[in-house]
Write a structure and sequence with these properties.
Neuraminidase, about 260 residues, globular, 23 strands, 1 helix, about 50% strand, single chain, mainly beta, nine-stranded mixed beta sheet
């Protein structure tokens, strides 16, 4: 299941598809393209729900009842150097790091967990309404997706919703927002069951960019849920790391606006 393309390889969204958007007060998103610069190993049994990079390690939240975990991973080898298992009634979801605490969502339980970054010791729990999908932070708030077109900004101390952001493109609301990553004042989001990542303005909710990663990895016919999910960012190298549920690889990519 190795990629069948040489490095570097460019992916870009179709300009024709963008041109077909309905007219609205939302400007058409900018086509983005990605150059694959490195391919790293990934546990092909990990049902990736959240991914981030910190101090040279990946931190990953994985899902499925009876299989959900929080992990610390060496990027070069894929070695899991720390793991914490969720009890069987919880389905792990999005993951964010704020300060020295990791915040992990669960899918339908309405409960999240807070862990110490160094020890993975559970420090506390928090509650929220609805489903938990993706999670990131702008350094002040936790930003949460729930599978709809609405992102919630949470106070990281009280977990009260301080703001709701409706995400839209020229054709209307954009639903199925999944894993999230906040990068340089913009929110990047996977779209569930679509090989696309959208870039979102946290001020307006408008989709400002769209990246197609179709063909990045061959689909797994026997596992329809093994879709693109997981975005991490390396600020020093300006690299994004993307993967999917039960994918055997993590791809380091450089994203830029399309020159087409």
């Amino acid at each position: 299941m190795n990629p069948s393309f040489p490095l570097p390889f460019l992916f870009s969204v179709s300009l024709l598809a963008l041109a077909s958007c309905q007219e609205s007060n939302v400007a058409p998103p900018t086509p983005l393209e990605a150059e694959v610069v490195e391919v790293l190993p990934h546990d092909n049994q990990a049902f990736t729900q959240g991914l981030l990079l910190h101090d040279g390690h990946f931190y990953e939240s994985t899902g499925q009842y009876g299989e959900s975990t929080l992990r610390k991973i060496k990027p070069r080898t894929g070695e899991i150097v720390e793991v914490r298992y969720l009890t069987d009634e919880f389905f792990g979801e999005g993951l964010a790091l704020l300060g020295d605490r990791l915040f992990q969502l669960t899918w339908k339980a309405g409960k999240g967990f807070i862990y110490d970054l160094k020890t993975f010791k559970k420090l506390d729990e928090f509650a929220y309404e609805g489903e938990g999908w993706g999670l990131t932070t702008d350094g002040t708030h936790l930003i949460m997706s729930d599978g709809t077109s609405t992102l919630r900004f949470l106070d990281p101390k009280t977990f009260q919703v301080v703001r709701r952001l409706e995400v839209a493109d020229p054709s209307g609301k954009v639903a199925d927002l999944n894993e999230l990553e906040y990068v340089n004042g913009q929110i990047f989001a996977n779209l569930w069951y679509r090989d696309e990542i959208v870039r979102i303005s946290p001020e307006t909710g408008h989709v400002t960019g769209i990246l197609s990663l179709r063909g990045l990895l061959r689909p797994i016919p026997s596992d329809p849920d093994s879709v693109l999910n997981g975005i991490a960012y390396n600020k020093e190298k300006d690299l994004y790391y993307v993967t999917g549920k039960r994918w055997p690889k993590i791809f380091a990519i450089r994203i830029r606006e399309s020159s087409e």
